[in-house]
């Protein structure tokens, strides 16, 4: 008997062309509320800095707001870039969230800066040294959340004993190794760096050491999903995603652009180098109608053997994005239906 796979949402709170941060936060709330109503398991928000078109820079604040506006969905970080922060402060913040919203807060941790080198230095001059201490700082976080920390001279009150699951996030084998060694759940960023995803999951499963947090491996794949009524409509909507990665590759800072009529024309107009990188970054993307996505995501889930699926859907029009959530939920419900003999 196959087990049902949960569906979750990564929301980057990207500001669209001719919009602003206030409107984007309102849209993020509406997305979270719809995902909550539809039965999505989680919504995670990501820490980015010095990006004028990303509204989730104060990630912990936005997590608290979204948790306050929803009822059942788990709200968390995908992720908090731990080298930017003191583990003590993160424990205090997420411990507080865990008390305010019991059994609904996740703490996903990454080791990248979530920004450019100059900004990383502005956040923390010793960022590089802290990134090297990432495993040690994850352990410090675990200690701060433990009830045993009540005997410590440095306490992360009120985090002690609060159940906030820690996830290791990554896009490489290093993160897989750490998650396996620490016995923690592992989420892979296939929505922008899918190349090593399957290999990382296999390594994680093979080297997983059970812990007090987890008795067996637990994997989550985040992939781009763009859904619409037809394959052609979904492809047109996806051109905003491709333009987003093109701007990232070319270091052109723009808000999320409206879709264009032809994906092939958009790709052909790119330089050979940009096209190569954009193709690599979008290789973990699923674009199409309900029927197409049901077939392709079912194959992906079977091949990757993931325990959970999380989607990132940078879609320009808000109503199209809400519709995307509804279609994807129907896709997952179909995939999770019992197989007839």
Q: What assembly state would you assign to the polypeptide chains in this entry?
A: single chain
Tell me the Rg in angstroms: 20 Å
The percent range for helix content is: 40-55%
Instruction: Describe the strand arrangement of the main beta sheet, using strand numbers.
Output: 1-2-3-4-5-6-7-9
Strand content: 5-15%
Low-confidence sequence ranges:
none
Let me know the number of strands: 9
- Mean pLDDT, nearest integer? 95
One letter per element, helices H and strands E, the order comes to EHEHEHEHHHEHEHEHHHEHEH
The outline comes out as globular
* Spatial separation of the terminal alpha carbons: 11 Å
Derived from helix and strand composition plus strand pairing, the structural class reads alpha/beta
Largest sheet: 8 strands, parallel, barrel
Question: Total helix count?
Answer: 13
Notable features of this structure?
single chain, 341 residues, 8-stranded parallel β-barrel
Descriptive notes:
This protein is of the alpha/beta class and 341 residues long. It is 46% helix and 15% strand. The protein contains 13 helices and 9 strands. It has helices at 21-38, 59-68, 87-100, 117-123, 127-132, 134-145, 173-182, 197-207, 231-249, 263-268, 272-281, 290-304, 318-335, and strands spanning 7-11, 42-45, 74-81, 105-110, 166-170, 186-189, 219-227, 285-288, 308-312. The chain has an 8-stranded parallel β-barrel, surrounded by 8 helices. β2 (42-45), α2 and β3 form a beta-alpha-beta unit. α3 (87-100) crosses α6 (134-145), α9 crosses α11 (272-281) and α12 (290-304) crosses α13. The longest helix is centred in the C-terminal third of the chain and has 19 residues, at 231-249. The model has no long low-confidence stretch (mean pLDDT 95).
């Amino acid at each position: 008997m196959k087990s049902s796979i949960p569906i979750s949402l990564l929301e980057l709170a990207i500001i669209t062309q001719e919009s602003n941060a206030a409107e984007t936060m309102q849209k993020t709330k509406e997305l979270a509320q719809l995902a909550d109503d539809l039965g999505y398991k989680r919504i995670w928000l990501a820490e980015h800095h010095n990006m004028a078109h990303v509204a989730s820079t104060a990630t912990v604040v936005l997590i608290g707001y979204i948790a306050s506006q929803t009822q059942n969905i788990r709200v968390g970080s995908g992720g908090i870039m731990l080298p930017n922060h003191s583990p003590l402060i993160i424990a205090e913040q997420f411990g507080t969230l865990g008390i305010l919203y019991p059994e609904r807060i996740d703490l996903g941790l990454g080791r990248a800066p979530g920004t450019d080198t100059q900004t990383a230095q502005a956040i923390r001059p010793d960022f590089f040294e802290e990134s090297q201490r990432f495993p040690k700082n994850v352990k410090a976080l675990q200690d701060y959340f433990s009830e045993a920390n009540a005997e410590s001279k440095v306490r992360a009150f009120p985090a002690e004993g609060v159940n906030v699951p820690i996830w290791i996030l990554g896009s490489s084998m290093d993160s897989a190794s750490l998650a396996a060694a620490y016995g923690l759940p592992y989420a892979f960023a296939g929505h922008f760096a899918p190349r090593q995803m399957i290999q990382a999951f296999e390594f994680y499963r093979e080297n997983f050491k059970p812990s007090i947090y987890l008795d067996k491996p637990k994997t989550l794949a985040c992939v781009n999903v763009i859904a619409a009524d037809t394959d052609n409509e979904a492809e047109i909507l996806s051109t905003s995603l491709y333009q987003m990665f093109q701007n990232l590759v070319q270091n052109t800072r723009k808000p999320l652009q409206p879709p264009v009529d032809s994906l092939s024309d958009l790709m052909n107009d790119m330089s050979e180098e940009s096209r190569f990188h954009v193709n690599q970054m979008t290789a973990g993307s699923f674009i199409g109608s309900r029927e197409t996505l049901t077939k392709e995501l079912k194959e992906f889930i079977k091949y990757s053997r993931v325990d959970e699926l999380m989607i990132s859907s940078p879609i320009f029009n808000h109503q199209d994005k809400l519709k995307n959530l509804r279609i994807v939920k129907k896709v997952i419900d179909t995939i999770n239906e019992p197989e007839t003999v």
